[in-house]
Amino acid sequence: MQQSDLAPGPTDVNRKGVLIVLIALALAAAGAGGAAGIFAARGEQGLVLLSLFCVPLIVLLAYGFYRRTIVPYFRRLEDANLELHLKQEELLDMKDDLFIKFLGIYDVNYAANSPRLFPDRLNDVADITARAMEADVCLVFLYDKKKDELALAATNGYRGHAVGKTRIPLGQGIEGWVGRRLEPVMLKDFSKDQRFRELPELTLSEYTSVYCLPLYVYSNGALVGAIEVLYSKAKNFSDEEINFFTTLAGIISTTVQNEDLQTELRKMNMELEQWVAEKIEELRSSEERYRTLVEHAAESIFVLAENGDVLFANEQAVQFTGLGKYDLVHKNLFEILVMPGAAQQLLAEAVQNRQTVRQGDLRKADGSVVPVEVSVVELTLMGKRFIQSVVRDRSSVVRLEKLVEEQKKELATLRKPVKD
Questions:
Q1: Is 276 inside a domain boundary?
Q2: Number of domains comprising the chain
Q3: Euclidean distance between CA atoms 102 and 218, whole angstroms
Q4: 220 CB-contact burial (10 Å; exposed 0-12 / middle 13-18 / buried 19+)
Q5: Mean pLDDT by groups of 10 residues along the chain of 420 residues
Q6: 133 plus 254 within the same structural domain
Q7: Both 10 and 148 in a single domain?
Q8: The pTM is what?
Q9: In Å, how far are 293, 322, 381, 384 from 287, measured between CA atoms?
Q10: Which domain holds residue 129?
Q11: Pair (99, 9) in one structural domain
């Protein structure tokens, strides 16, 4: 911006001085002319000459007054005006710079949280950071906890083949020192610093200045990596650049930690899903074996609710009762068992995880009654409690017992003495 755009220059001041002198001259001439006319009318020639002599004197006095008082005032006013305009231009430049930095923060935050793959997001972050910091190179390192190393994870396009290959032990080199001490490093000429270690894959000695920050999450004290920018020319970092780069490092640190947590969560979910699938398969196999054993058992087996309702009955139970499976599973077991007063006791003992055996009768679909032996025990399937009941046909046992009793009676009769 030129000086004429900011404040009046010396030419303007001279013009003002000439204008003031002309005005003073006109006023003096008018005043002197009027006085001379009055004195001439009175015939006082000496006073007329004196009046005419005062005209240039008044002009000289006016000009002298202007130079001693008005000109310095205008000079100070012009200097203040110029300084004000310069401050205004400086503020506008700062505003533009802050706006550019704000856009940089927005772009980094957007790139870090975009739906792209994590390596691509890191490359975008490195590229935006390099542009916002006006750096030649931006390198992003991630911390490998198992190996206690910083691994190069992204660049702004510089030596991309070194990504994943360059590794720096924590505590070694400028980057390792930053990661170990959790302190920033700003060097105008880092090649002269004793902490500097050349990395064959990167050849950083081609550059002069460096600014390196740890990627550290202060909320939980976790180191996740380091980020640095390099410049080919010597550079001093301003407070605005320091604050801006620190803000970017905070955003990137949180993003990296979130990605680590999501990766760990995905791994845990996969392991959990695999474990659940294995357990489901084991349970399915166990249930299949149980179902196979129950279906092919020679005894009538029922699975009951805690109130005695039939939930499942095997094929032998269907054949033994003469009821269809659909009709059977919609009955209470004690509707077909004749066990006066023993039903509730059986269920209560089963719920208490006590195996109980009782004898009674079973009423078949055709109305016939068959003596049976009933055993009940608690059963847990898929975390739910049930009651398993096994009903055995005692018809043959009863017949044998009856036959034995009859034989005992016959033997007792034969042993009696025969009367003459």
A1: no
A2: 3
A3: 23
A4: exposed
A5: 45 57 63 61 60 64 68 76 78 63 64 71 86 90 92 88 90 92 92 87 88 88 91 89 87 85 87 89 79 77 87 87 85 82 75 79 88 86 81 86 81 66
A6: yes
A7: no
A8: 0.52
A9: 10, 26, 8, 14
A10: 117-266
A11: yes
